[in-house]
């Protein structure tokens, strides 16, 4: 049995703005990462940094379909897929899945933590894209290593 972290939200912005908000590091650094060495584009490999962790995270096997989907690997056991669905009112539903880990006690903790993490990603993205609010700023200071 494989474990899947899932999260979904509706953002009151057109699909092209939501897509750009995910692939463009100048936007993503306002709600998710602290640094990236480029855009999420098919075939690229990137390095992401997060404000609360000292490590660099390699982003591999990137695939994008403009205004439809983004997928990448940042953990050799999983694939992250972000699907965008345009609604009739021009809002966008964003669905994130990260799957691939086999069921065991450690991976059960992983799926709970990553489900929480992706829900936070979506809430922070919604706040930023809709209202220009940076929810993530300062939210995880307690996690930094001293």
What characteristics describe this protein?
3 helices; alpha+beta; globular; 7-stranded antiparallel sheet; 146 residues
What's the layout of helices and strands?
Layout: E1 2-11, H1 15-23, H2 25-28, E2 35-36, E3 46-49, E4 56-65, E5 69-75, E6 78-86, E7 92-102, H3 105-131
Antiparallel strand pairs: 1-7, 2-3, 3-4, 4-5, 5-6, 6-7
Major sheet strand order: 1-7-6-5-4-3-2
Estimate the strand proportion.
35-45%
Tally of extended strands? 7
Q: What is the share of helical residues?
A: 25-40%
Distance between the termini: 38 Å
Structural class, by secondary structure, is alpha+beta
Quick one: overall form? globular
Mean of pLDDT: 94
Radius of gyration: 15 Å
Which consecutive residue ranges, at least 5 long each, have pLDDT under 50?
none
- How large is the count of helical segments? 3
Q: What does the largest sheet look like?
A: 7 strands, antiparallel
Assembly annotation: single chain
Order of helices and strands: EHHEEEEEEH
Explain what you see.
27% of the residues lie in helices and 36% in strands. By secondary structure, the chain is α+β, with helices and mostly antiparallel strands. Strands 1-7-6-5-4-3-2 form a seven-stranded antiparallel β-sheet, covered by helices on one side. Strand 4 and strand 5 (69-75) form a beta hairpin. The longest helix is centred in the last third of the chain and has 27 residues, at 105-131. The chain starts with a strand and ends in a 15-residue tail after the last helix.
